[in-house]
Write a structure and sequence with these properties.
By secondary structure, the chain is α/β, with parallel strands linked by helices. It has seven helices and five strands; from the N terminus they run βαβααβαβααβα.
Length: 152
Amino acid sequence: MYQRILIPLENTAYDDAILHHVKKLARLCNSSLVVVHVADGWAARNIHQLELRESEEMRKDREYLEKRAADLVTEGFEVDAILAGGDPAQEISAAAEREKCDLIAMSTHGHKFLADLVYGSVAEGVRHRSTIPVLMVRGTAMPKPAEAKQQP
């Protein structure tokens, strides 16, 4: 059914929610996975036009993305990892088409109407831009184990 699934990761606890669902679906469909993170800081948005070097933020994003991809490979999945820069909704939609994905599976935060108006919603932007089906899973903002240990 789904041969190649694109999974946008944002380097937050919300990533676990979508990966939990997608791993089951990917095993069922024998799908390959493409994990993508869109760095959207100033350097990431202007890296090509201004011929900038990768920022510290982008380096950390790349490390995170490669770690998540390696973990999925260890679990037996075929995985490609992409670090993109720019507008998240636009870059996710473009990556799905470029990588010939037939499903985009992403976590959502469940913002309320006012928060979506103020902050926008990447999930809504992807849904409106993409011609590829989009699976949205509502995540929970649970801290990662390392973050939980740091709290008093």
